Amino acid sequence: MSNYDLVVIGGGSGGVRAARIAAGHGAKVAICEEFRYGGTCVIRGCVPKKMMVYAAHFSEDFEDSRHYGWNTTVNSFDWSRLIKNKDTEIDRLNGIYENLLSNAGVEILYGTASLIDANTVMLGDKKLNADKILIATGGSPFMPKVAGIEHAISSNEVFHLEQQPSSAIIVGGGYIAVEFAGIFNGIGTETTLLYRGPQILRGFDNDIRNHLSAEIVKKGIDLKLGTDVESIRLDSDGRKVVTLSNGSTKTVDCVLYATGRNPNVKSLKLENAGVELGKKGEVKVDKYSRTNVASIFAVGDVTDRIALTPVATMEGHAFADTFFGNNERFADHTNVPSAVFSQPPVSSIGLSAEQAREEFDKVDTYTSEFRILKHTITDNTERTLMKLIVNADTDVVIGAHMVGPDAAEIMQGIAIAIKAGATKADFDATVGIHPSTAEEFCTMRTKDAN
Ligand code: NDP
User: Which of 14, 177, 387, 428 is the most buried (most CB within 10 A)?
Assistant: First the structure.
């Protein structure tokens, strides 16, 4: 039996940050991981996805470049080269994560961990005795019960397809579905996006949703709203024959389900310690990431709070500071910015106009819709949308949203202003950087007609 101050289960963003910081505060820490260090974000999420987004956007860039004088001819796209280069970088990052941990003095362990009781973790044939245990096991794709679902893949497999599909159906209307629709469409796969509801990106500002939806259709994605899959079967060539809820069928090379993610708790045997779970199977925690069991804590996607990497690292860091660094603090889940790396990308912080109107009496909105300077001499018809939401009683900006190139890069700065409580007058008093797209956030003078 080995004794530790902290045993972390899960080597993703939240777990690794918590382990490193706790060790830095002087704790004796071990971390267990069943697959590879880095977690969803590094291994099969944000990082490889963003590389694919870059890859996909070149098709548009090549086309645009012709209007800037380049005689660009593009013949083909090599999927296997992209996957190989992406894998090389992921291997490098995996190594960096392990180095960070070992340099911090954390003991790195491999295997599937489970709980024996509130202070004991079983890892293979080893028992780890821990004063505190942190669950940071993340989530995994949810695949609904649909006839033939075994012929579909999830976002885990899409990063390792041997060949680029010539056609694909993507099911879902959230982050992953919209991002992969853009990736496949950009690299020349005939792409259909199926969403069961009336508009993609539920929860985002309605203008943003409608704008993105129109843009992706313009770029060639076959978007079918109010449509779901009835069944999937294979034809004699191994292609997927998908029967849709509207009665039609479509035959494609690949069906990708991006219908949400579930917390990874199955193998943990949390019941041995009496850890309480929520409706979706998530580990229930308070704002300090404490479970109902005094020695057990949880951070990241497994808690189903806000499933974003920087949120998980913030939670892990706050946990380590509070319980090992004598610095009591908790992760602030308000005004968390995020981006959907669709094409064009979406980025948002704060409330949508619809949420703001539910929360406040008087809300003003300011919207600007335009073609960016770069496209004024190309054939690219892409339009950008920027929107500010203001509490009219206090003048405080309570939401900012954008669909357009560099949305994530622009919104990070806007997010700082909003987090700091900037008013619309502060936005107006800020001098724009000219010529840029971002300056539009400082020049919106006319309120939208409500
Ligand atoms: P999301 O929760 O964003 O979206 C899931 C989508 O699947 C929704 O459109 C949902 O529809 C639909 N859906 C759910 N169940 C079914 C079903 N049974 N049949 C048909 N459709 C269904 O999940 P994702 O998988 O896209 O991503 C998971 C999380 O990961 C995100 O919420 C986000 O927090 C994070 N993420 C962040 C990224 C980023 O920051 N760029 C990128 C990727 C993921 P409905 O709206 O009707 O419920």
Answer: 14
Q: How far is the CA of 254 from the centre of ligand 1 (A)?
A: 19
Query: Which domain does 410 fall in, by range?
Result: 344-442
- Determine the distance separating the centroid of ligand 1 and the alpha carbon of 352, expressed in angstroms: 18
Spot the catalytic one: 160, 333, 401, 434. Answer: 434
Measure 267 CA to ligand 1 centroid, in angstroms: 24
Task: Look at residues 212, 234, 259 and tell me which one is the last residue of a structural domain.
Answer: 259
pLDDT digits (tens, 9 = 90+) for 228-265: 999 999 999 999 999 999 999 999 999 999 999 999 99
Q: 319-345: per-residue pLDDT in tens? A: 999 999 999 999 999 999 999 999 999
Q: Which of 259, 275, 298 is the last residue of a domain?
A: 259
Task: Give dist(CA 413, CA 415) in Å, integer.
Answer: 5
Our answer on whether the CB atom of 202 is closer than 6 Å to any ligand 1 atom is yes
Q: At what angle do helices 79-103 and 13-24 cross, to 10 degrees?
A: 20
For residues 202 and 287, membership in a common domain is answered with no
Q: Is 146 in the pocket of ligand 1 (CB under 6 A)?
A: no
Domain shared by 222 and 117, yes or no: no
Strands 139-141 and 261-263: antiparallel
User: Catalytic residue at 375?
Assistant: no
Per-residue pLDDT for 72 more than 90?
A: no
Roughly how many angstroms between the first and final C-alpha of the chain, as a whole number?
A: 66
- Ligand 1, residue 258: give the atom nearest the CA: 25
CA-CA distance, 154 to 105, in Å (whole number)?
36
